[in-house]
Amino acid sequence: MNIARNLVVAQSGGPTPVINSSLRGIIEAAREFQSIETVFAARHGIEGVLKEELLDLTAQPAEEVALLRYTPAAGSIGTCRYKLRANQAEDFERVIEVLRAHRVGYFLYIGGNDSMDTADKIARLAHERGLDLTAVGVPKTIDNDVGDGEFRLIDHTPGFGSVARYWMHKVQEANEENAGSCPADPVLVMQAMGRRIGFIPAAARLADPAREMPLQIYLAESHCSLAELAGRVCDQLHRAGRCLVVISEGFDVGQVGNLSNDNTGQVDNLSYVKDAFGHIAFGSSKQTVAQVVVNYLNQAGLPCKGSARGNVPGTDQRHSMVHASTVDLDEAYRLGQKAVELAAAGSSGFMATILREPGPVYSVRYDKVPL
Predict the structure, then answer these.
(1) Which of 54, 256, 269, 366 falls 20 to 30 Å from 103 in CA-CA distance?
(2) How far apart are CA 62 and CA 295, in angstroms?
């Protein structure tokens, strides 16, 4: 007879508008398995395991758990950006110690590529230490970059559908503002999240599928110099009298940074802040890519009166519940359910995934891929 064991769920990295829908799916699915006794949440991701800060989610009323569908971001159980490093043996030993002490037989980690790496490390470590633990990953990220980049491991990542909807509406609203203020502000530069993958700025095209707006989109992958960008903007101004630019925060602005004030034409390099995983935290850095582009356009000069302006949406891109996609919410929930099913079946070292079925009508299935 199998002895019921406890489950720990945690989150890592930046949140999404639908991350709590996956959490809800996990909590509600766990009720259906006698092998799962109590569902704990590690407060603030893997740091909650290290600090032994575990929240009893099974004790929460069902109606409170159901409200997670409408709860944005990660405030419910918290998230973190803490990296388990190979040379920090004490962290790994502490993780095993805490999981063993609380009779944890299932560990589910919600997050992106780095979180999947953490889940994989814990799965391998548990096996090495003889701990009967099933570790499963639950994908999320607005960047839509989990997996191999070719959509064979996952078709799309929960969170992306909602941020795509966000940018569709934001560009439509910005277009109205720009059309009205273009004599004074003919160019509006908007910076979208996405360090190295351009799915988020590309989603701005949803605002104008017929290409009727004077809209230009520059991805992190766009190999284009600032001079070339400025030339294209000026061409757009000649044609339409105004221009909207959506640019990735990871767009390469080269060596251009803070313009000097001594009229020498010298520039300082952009000063980037990095997180524990070595990723650039653009929102915390010295200067934004959008501002660099605005400064360059204004310094180079526009072929019309007025100036370029910038708009840098912040973390609202990843927590705006107003723009949450219902399909995104439903799929995030089902991935949470699938992760519990995998865990209960003993499928350790796997990630729950979503794959698209062939055919003209949108349809998906839920499966697993190795972490």
Answers:
(1) 366
(2) 53
All residues at 6 or more sequence positions from 202 whose CB lies less than 8 Å from its CB, including other chains: 217, 219
Are 79 and 159 within 8 A, CB to CB? no
Torsion sign (Cα): 141, 145, 148, 152? positive
C-alpha distances in angstroms, 60 versus 34, 40, 55, 197, 321?
18, 11, 10, 38, 23
**What is the DSSP-derived secondary structure letter of residue 274?**
B
Q: Which sequence positions are flagged as catalytic?
A: 143
Radius of gyration in angstroms for the set of CA atoms belonging to the chain, rounded to a whole number: 23
Burial of 68 from C-beta contacts in 10 A (0-12 / 13-18 / 19+): buried
What are 12-25's pLDDT values in tens digits? 998 999 999 999 99
Q: Which two tokens stand for residue 64?
A: 């409170």
- Average predicted confidence (pLDDT) for the chain: 90
pTM: 0.89
Q: Is the pLDDT of residue 162 over 60?
A: yes
| Tally of CB atoms within 10 A around 264 | 7
